[in-house]
Amino acid sequence: MSQDFIHLLPYWGYPLMFVLMFFEGPFATMIAAFLASQGLFNIGIVFVLSVIGDVLGDIGLYHIGYFGGPKIIEKTQKFLKIGDATVEKLKNKFHQNSGRLVFYVKSTTGLSYITFTLAGALRMKLLKFIKYSVLGGIVWSGLLVFLGYFFGYAAEKISQYIKYAGVAIFIAAIIAVVVISHIKKRESAEILGNGKKS
Question: Burial letters for 87-110: b for 16+ Cβ neighbours within 10 Å, e otherwise?
Fold first, then answer.
């Protein structure tokens, strides 16, 4: 049964992986890259699916803002608990350099959702939005794929000598993503011109 599962994984795994990357890209990408290091997936396909899934999610948020307008921005603010001051700063940043803003908030938690929705509401050109979303996705997904593959490779080698080392390294990989996301969140705060939550 396990052999059959492993045999079917590349066929069913890629579509499932893509769906997960669309909704929760970072962790799905890390897990897929981790499994790729074990020979269950192709690392190149994992990277491409990660970028595509991530960008499609961004485009979805863009269109929510485009068709939802100010009302959807208000609802998104309340849902994400983002203050009016932060939204106003984001609007100012859009007028200054919308592409740079989209690129730098790509990997943040929470702020990326409101930013991409706001991009649509403010009628940022779709092609320009996609361009910077793809560029940010390549950088972010590339880092996640590298980390997942590296930790998976290390787990395989170390597990030959230390029991449960693979589990420990996988947990370390997840922690690494959380730490990086936190750093990116702080960077996004700096983009807004402050280090405090608004």
Answer: bebbeebbeeebbebbbbbbbbeb
